[in-house]
Amino acid sequence: MTYQTLISASDLKARVQYLNLVLIDCRHDLTNPDFGRQAYAAGHLPEARFVHLDELLSGPKTDAAGRFHGRHPLPDRQQFVQAMRALGINNDTQVVAYDAQGGMYAARLWWLLRWIGHSDVAVLDGGMAAWQALGESLSTEAPPPAAAGNIQDLSSLVPTVDAQALLENLRNPALQVVDARAPDRFRGENETLDAVGGHIPGARNRFFRDNLQADGRFKNAAQLREEWLAVIGDPQAAVMQCGSGVTACHNLLALEVAGLSGASLYPGSWSEWSSDPQRPVATGH
Prior knowledge:
By secondary structure, this protein is α/β, with parallel strands linked by helices. The protein has helices spanning 9-15, 35-42, 77-86, 106-115, 127-133, 163-171, 183-187, 221-232, 248-257, 269-273; strands at 6-7, 21-25, 49-50, 94-98, 121-124, 176-179, 204-205, 238-241, 264-265. A five-stranded parallel β-sheet has the order 1-5-4-2-3. It has a four-stranded parallel β-sheet with strand order 7-6-8-9, with helices on one face.
């Protein structure tokens, strides 16, 4: 049995010794880049390895020509494959990613592994809190270096779109853009991370935290499906974005849980879009 969207803490506990497993700690804080590493050192799930959003799950913010591609562009594909091999991941490895922020960072790793064609990756539903609620202990010991894995760069399981495609979509609307940021930032209020407030014209807002129950676990598939169909209609004509392409992956995970596959990611998201004054900006609802 493999897991390709979510895994419950109880399933992880029951199957950890049977799964060909690599467990990845993805904790992060956008305003404190050292948070995740410090939190990992203070206590993590036993045998988990740490990955840093800025270092492994993102690429350079600007390209060789000096063009800005957002705060968290996609990493170089081959470098990402090599990083996953260094974590001991093989083509048949079950990867489980977790964080302590409702899956907002773990979902980025989930999406990136699907981007290189690896399907057996799941997010720990409820994260560290769900694990500790079972009475399970944490470890302060880092596991020894992994034997190099053999994960391959296979056909991507997930589509992407770029800013040019979305500019063309403004002229000939065929795609529904969905913004995962908090409603105030979507409206252009209280913007603290990007230089310009607002959203891509025509976008709808679905705050990624609306995918979760009060306890931090995902809503069930039926509820997610009902809520999302009211937002997007056809998932294959939907594009997920956020501030920098991270929490948009949470919405993509929720869609997959709901059985609504096929939506695209705009990796540059608002941080890239808003960096070019020639691109239009909308504010309000």
